[in-house]
Design goal:
Elements lengths: L1 E4 L5 E6 L5 E6 L9 E6 L5 E6 L5 H9 L6 H14 L2
Antiparallel strand pairs: 1-2, 2-3, 3-4, 4-5
Amino acid sequence: MVVRTNENGFREVELDAASGGRIVIADYGKEYVTDIGSVSSVNVHGLGGAEWIRSVEDIERHVKDIENTRWLSDEEKRSCIDFLRSIAE
């Protein structure tokens, strides 16, 4: 898992899963006008999508989505969830 600041100045984490998939979570900051972040995921077969994190309350829905992802290991899930929850801090 790589944590970095992207080209727009937002904190971002990228996880290349052992199964071959990828998850990218961006933190725009709680003060951002429209959305506070985004979650993008693609499995090894190229199936996935991107969703916005609209509010701090929305984070728990994204946590549940990560928890239900079958192609991530428990450790990979925990890393993604920890980053998601840090957005609310």
